[in-house]
Structure formats: C-alpha cells, structure tokens
Amino acid sequence: MKHDDMKMHDMHDMDHDHGDMMMHGGHMMHMGNLKQKFWVSLVATIPIIILSPFMGIKLPFQTTFPGSDWLVLLLATFLFFYGGAPFLKRCKERIGREEPSDDDVDCMGITVSYGYSLYAFIANHFLATQTHVMDFFWELATLIVIMLLGHWIEMNAVMSAGSPMEKMAALLPGQAQVLVQDGQQHAVDLKDLQEGQTVLVAAGEKVPADGLVVNGQSQVNESLVTGEAKAVAKKTGDQVIGGTVNGDGTLTVKVTGTGESGYLAQVMKLIKQAQQEKSKVEGLADKVAKYLFYAALVAGIIAFISWFFLADLNTAFERMVTVFIIACPHALGLAIPLVVARSTAIAATNGLLIRNRQAIEVADQITMVLMDKTGTLTQGAFKVNAVQPTGEMSKTQLMAYMGALERHSSHPLATGILAYNDAEKITMSQAENVQTIQGIGLTGAIEGQTYQIVTADYLQEKQIAFDTAAFETLAAKGNSISYLNSRSNCLRDWSRKGVQLKPEALTFIKALKKRHIQPVMLTGDNQQVAEKVAQQLVGMTVQANLKPEDKEALVQDYQAKGEVVLMVGDGVNDAPSLTRADIGIAIGAGTDVAIDSADVILVKSNPNDIMHFLNLAHATSRKMTQNLWWGAGYNILAIPLAGGLFAAWGLILSPAIGAILMSLSTIVVAINAMTLKLKN
C-alpha cells in the first residue's frame, strides 16, 4: 500500500497486478518473464544437447553436420545473454555496492563456462592447437535452463507462502449496497464507499467494510479474517469486520472503516512489514552466503591450479566451473524468507498478527510470561453486583455520576457500569473535561463539581479516610471496588464489580507450566482480588496494585535476573511494559490492530492463542534451522566432490550434475518451508 488514501479495492488490484513479482537479492523479478525465458531457453538448449558433446563424450543420440558447431556457438551465445540475463543483470548492479551473494556465484559459474567455451571454439577453429580443446556449451546450456527452472519453482513457492494474504484481499466484495435518505438502495463500487454511509448486508453476503450494526441481527462467519471458527452473533451496537460473511439475517451497517482504516488493510500492512523485515537468523544466512562465495572462489581456484598440473587445462576449467556451480548459495538466500513468509501468513489466518519477526526467534527462549489480569485471564465484561452510597447521594445518582465519567472510557470496568445503568434505565449526567488518571481511574467535571473514580490504593496514598473493614470483606470475595470521590477529598460512595475468570485461562496457565514457563499475573486491582483469581489458576505468582510504570519496572527487574520475558497486555495502559519486554503481545483486537507497542497482536481475546504463537514460533525456528542446513550444509560434501578431491575413488561431479544438485537443494528448501503448519 503506497498511499494513505488507497482504498481496499485498489489494494487488491495492486496485489493482483504484482502477484507474479518477487523480490530477490534486493531486485524485482517478474515471474511471467522468467517463465518465458525458461521455455525459450529450453527450446534453444535442445539443439545444443543434440549437437554438442557432453564433457567431450559423444552420446548415442547425438549427431553433427558441417557447420553444426557454429550453430551451437550461436545458440549458446543467445542463451548466455538471454537466459542468463537475470543473473548477469543483478550481478552487474551489485558490483562495488553490496557484499557477495548467491547471485555472484550464479554469474561467476555461467560467465566462466561461456568464456572458456568461447576460447575453446576460437582455439579449435582459428588457432593452430595440437589437441582439441573441450568446450562447455552443453554444460552451459543445461546450467542456465536448470537455474531458470529453479528460480521459477522458488518464485512459485514464495507466491504460495504468501497466498493467505492474497486470499484476505480477495475477501471483500466488489460492490456495496448503500442506503440513501429515501430508503432506497443503490450499488456503489467498494473503492467509492465512504465512512459514515449506511450499507445493507443481505443474508449470505460479504460485509463490505468495517462498521457498526444499526439494525438487524444475524450470525457472522469471521473464520477467514480472525481465525474464529464458530459463527459470531451480531446485533444492534455490535461491530462487524469487512470481509466476514453474513449468515441468515439481514444487517444494516454504518461504515466506520474503509481503505487504510479498514481491518483487512491494517492486517495486510502488518504482514507485509513483517515479511520485509530481516531477522537475526536471516542475517546469519546472508553472512553464511557471503562466506560461501569466498569459499567457492578459493576452492575453485585451488581446484583449477591442482588439476592444471595433475591433468590439463580443460579438466582444470571443468573442476573450477563445477565448484562455482555447486556452491551457489541460492537456496540459502531463500531458506529463511520462505519460512517467514509462510509463518506470518499462517499466523494471520489464525488470528495472530506478527509485527516483529524477531519475536519468532526469541519465543523459544521465553522463561517467564507476565500478563495483565483484566481481559487476559478474566472476562473483559464486569458486572456491577453492589452499589453502596456512603453520603447523601442515592444509588441512582451515584451510578449516574459514575456512568457520566465512564462513558469516556473503554475500560472493561466502564463497560460494566454502563451496562448496569442501561439495565436499570438510569439517565446519566453530562461530564466535561474527562481525563484519565494513569493507572488509577478517571476525573472530570459534573454540574460544575470535579469528581474522580479511583481505587482504594489511591485513597490510602492520598490519606483519604474510607471504610477499610468493608473494603477488606468485599475484596476478599473477589470484587473490584471503585470509589467516587469529590474534589474536596470528602469520600462519597463506592460500587463493586464482580470478576469472572475466562474459561480458557486455566488451560493456558497449565500449558505454560508444562513448558516450564513461569506465569505471573500483573494487575492494578487490589491484592485480595488478584489472589482470589490466582487461587483459581493453581496458585500462580501475583503482583497487585500496580500502575503502568510499576509493570515496566517489574519487567526490567525480571530481565536483570536473566529471565526472558513475554508481556501480555491490552496495548494501551500496558504500552510501556509491552515495549520493554523481550516479546510484547497485545491481546484483544477486533478492529484495533494498530498497536505500536506490541510485537504480536492477538485478534481474539483468547489466552490460548498465546500458546498457538509459541507453538508456531517453535515450528518456525525448527524449519529455519533445517533450511539453513539444506541450503548450505550440503556444500560440506559437495564442494570437495566438485573440486575432484575424491576422484581417485571414482567420485566426481560434472558441471551439469552440480547444477542439478544446486537446484534440488533450492527445491527442497522451498518444499520444506511449505510443510510448515500450526499444530494446536
């Protein structure tokens, strides 16, 4: 996505147009051109195979005629400059600007093959040589064709690895049914859809954009977007995501997000950013590729000098060319990017948005998981189960004032108070200048008087008297207690909200302990509530009465003790600790995916998805290691074989066989990456 005003439909078109392009070695390769080059080169190679000897040996199916060697020269020259163009061009662009890579070995192999063959042709036809000089036109032609085929297969693998992202772009319909003032509806292209418009989503249709249901109820299938397998009930007031599929009901939706602001657009942006980043392992692969280039260069020169004295010039060139070909680290250049492309795409389709690829590599080292209580371990919705005025204010007035302030907050406690007022049909007052008291609550003006919603810890810190005995009794039962306080520091009233454990929380904690990862619950709530929750979670460690800065300090303390910390929070109040942790995971999403402080974002508020991330990261790291060995490890044996070190025992590789082995290693790397799966 290149422009902030690009619509989702345009983005889909762009992805479609560039769907046959791939970045390689920092340069864009066009898959259609590569495919064409392969087929044209293959056609040109067939006559060379028939007319040119293989390593000086005439095969049974081969033949010659007067002038056939000139035809071979012309076809080989065409192949070198046409079929070899992608490799030669990238090599030329890199000279003097970048460190050596697999492109340079490709270029070196075909250039030496063609250059020496051209010399052999001139020597045999124009120089008075005593013996026939063997050329490598057969090997050059087959090498270029095999390399083109290998690149084509690799590009197909890259496209397949990222295909879930293309599927996400294709989720959106082409048009939306917009409702106008007279109640009529008309079709509008998705790129022309604007925020604030109202659209009608009939049964079975795709939701065209992010929005708020203003009328109707239905079941919406969000599986392809959020990874949520079951249909989600939607009614008036609920949010829907563009690209999800409506069930049997009809929904009227007010559009809240299109283009860049839409959920799918943000998801795809995050995936692309993650896939384009370079991780430490990929940096290691680049370094190995550089050293492999130098190793191939040195080994090739040593092989040339050795065989020049042991045999002849032809054999020396043959061994050197074979070393250059077999050592091509092209598979190494794709070993990590292919796995990461596959991993981030799998993660996205399972409700895991990976913003920082480093998180995948660090995940296996995690020793401790710190998690915010509310929304991670406990239900995001709190229920008000008691209201107790302590002054002249009535229950209704107390809740009207608290609701007036909480209307300006998205915290789960606020949701509970607003739900209570809605159920009791309490008309809330108007609050002005409402501000957050970081880690404490809210403050604002109601009817000219300043009020605060605060915690017991705040009251103690400010030395404001309150009924501590009543607080201890209620808190011991697992209640979160909020106080409404006036500017004069005269304590007004309190309300309590019941805390309900998430059904998946216990399974999650047990899974962490099974992996020998220590779980720690962090909360701004009181100690009694925290311990009550911890008791239900098989006695996990608890840190209560914390402000955002306290959580960050705890992360630092644990890291100073040598722990590798994963922090789970809501991405807003927990931003400092999410940033400080080795891995920060923001839990809870829907359409709120632009959380800059987190490395990983969970689309669903299911703590078990953290285990899915850890499992996927483990599988990804394993595939990376395997691919590094497939991409470079085989050279430990292949380079000595190519150099003729074991020739005395009859073990030696021809340039063509070297090209096949080089391409096979690339294909194996691609197939291995594609087998990556998320095991729940």
Automatic annotation (TrEMBL):
Keywords: ATP-binding, Cell membrane, Copper, Copper transport, Ion transport, Magnesium, Membrane, Metal-binding, Nucleotide-binding, Phosphoprotein, Translocase, Transmembrane, Transmembrane helix, Transport. One of its GO terms (cellular component) is plasma membrane. PROSITE patterns: ATPASE_E1_E2. Residues 171-271 form the P-type ATPase A domain. It is a multi-pass membrane protein. GO terms for molecular function: ATP binding; ATP hydrolysis activity; copper ion binding; P-type divalent copper transporter activity; P-type monovalent copper transporter activity. The keyword Zinc does not apply. Its EC number is 7.2.2.8. GO terms for biological process: copper ion homeostasis. It catalyses: Cu(+)(in) + ATP + H2O = Cu(+)(out) + ADP + phosphate + H(+). The chain crosses the membrane at residues 38-58, 70-88, 109-128, 140-159, 291-309, 321-341, 628-650, 656-676. Pfam families: E1-E2_ATPase, Hydrolase. Belongs to the cation transport ATPase (P-type) (TC 3.A.3) family. Type IB subfamily. This is P-type Cu(+) transporter. The gene is atkB.
